[in-house]
Design goal:
seven-stranded mixed sheet; 25 strands; 2 helices; 8% helix; Immunoglobulin-like
């Protein structure tokens, strides 16, 4: 009995030892290293500026993210975390983004959520351009013998300008709004409705008072005048592309003498005025204009002989231009001094890209 028990004990001991040995063989000498935590690498989170009164852009535009292995992630705006942006007030707002791989937020604990600051600035925004509450911020003047005054027409909710004497050149009577900002290389559309008792002309200028009233697009004349509707509103549009970044600029509407129709006393109404940065810079699609920027004349017959402006596209194919601008049709009276008049030729393609060319006419006795 003892011998049998010893045999069983020895077998149990061998079995236990084998089990321990087998267990030891299944354990690696170097445990597997933990995989590096996945995280997002971001681009395009720079602060952006948005003008008051404009449409809020796509805030994710230009923002991208990859994970640390180079895989593209999908960027989405986190509306719950982001500030609500008020485009009627100046201020700074914070918006948040998350980076997704499918439905999974990548590295939510750390860098999966990122932010950028949106600054709402006045820029070129004209508060209450519809004149619903008056004409606050506007000023006006007549110069060198020209005479005008302006007030608020509360019945029509519009700016009303009474012109007694238009003077002898286009810029002498002006109403203006000061304190706007413009950016280099941005094209601005100035749009407003206008009517008058005489169908007179109105021009538009954007100038820098601190630099001697330099025009923001210094290579272009600002003496283009457009006719108003006679007792019915007409929409008028002007365009400028700024040469530099300028602050505290002046938007002016010029109501001096462009043509003989402007000699008579007149009442003018202005409504729904705005200055808006265009999404695309003008003259950036390869349109080439052919013609001189200045044409001198001393008689109406010479003015009528001015050659047309032509243009070709990037493939050297002719494009059809539209001309705007009011020019005299009668000889000048003796009280008209040397002066300038302008016209604009423009082309807009199917995608809304604008190309334009201004020509100045110099009247010299």
């Amino acid at each position: 009995m003892k011998k049998r028990f010893l045999t069983l004990s020895l077998l149990s001991t061998l079995t236990l030892g084998l089990g321990v040995s087998l267990f030891s063989c299944g354990t690696p000498e170097n445990p597997t290293e933990e995989k590096e935590e996945r995280y997002a690498i971001w681009k395009g989170l720079e602060d952006i500026e948005v003008n008051m009164g404009t449409t809020l852009p796509d805030l994710t535009q230009g923002v991208s993210a990859k994970d640390n292995e180079g895989k593209d992630l999908v960027v989405k705006l986190d509306e719950e975390m982001s500030d609500e942006i008020d485009l009627t007030k100046e201020g700074s707002y914070v918006v948040f983004f998350k980076a997704y791989d499918g439905d999974t937020v990548v590295d939510e604990k750390n860098t999966g959520t990122q932010l950028r600051t949106v600054r709402v600035v006045q820029g070129c925004y004209i508060p209450d351009g519809s004149f619903d509450n008056g004409i606050q911020g506007w000023s006006g003047n007549g110069n060198n013998g020209s005479v005008m005054n302006f007030d608020y027409d509360s019945i029509n909710k519009a700016m009303r300008i009474n012109i007694t004497n238009s003077g002898n050149t286009y810029w002498l009577n002006q109403v203006e709004y000061n304190g706007l900002d413009v950016k280099k290389g941005v094209t601005y559309e100035i749009s407003f409705k206008a009517k008058s008792t005489t169908g007179r002309n109105i021009g538009c200028t954007v100038e820098v008072p601190s630099q001697g009233y330099k025009v923001i697009e210094s290579s272009m004349p600002n003496s283009v005048g457009l006719p108003t509707g006679t007792n019915e509103y007409t929409e008028l549009k002007f365009y400028y592309t700024s040469d530099e970044n300028y602050s505290s600029v002046k938007l002016g509407l010029t109501l001096g003498r462009f043509t003989e129709v402007d000699d008579a006393p007149s009442t003018v109404w202005i409504d729904d005025i705005s200055m808006t940065p265009m999404a695309k810079k003008a003259n950036s699609t390869g349109i080439v204009f052919e013609g001189s920027t200045t044409y001198s004349f001393s008689s109406i017959s010479q003015l009528n002989d001015a050659p047309a402006i032509t243009a070709v596209d990037a493939n050297y194919q002719p494009v059809e231009l539209t001309r705007i601008g009011s020019l005299p049709t009668e000889e000048y009276p003796s009280n008209i001094s040397d002066s300038s008049f302008g016209e604009m030729w423009y082309y807009e393609d199917d995608e809304g890209n604008l190309s334009y060319f201004r020509r100045q006419f110099e009247y010299r006795r």
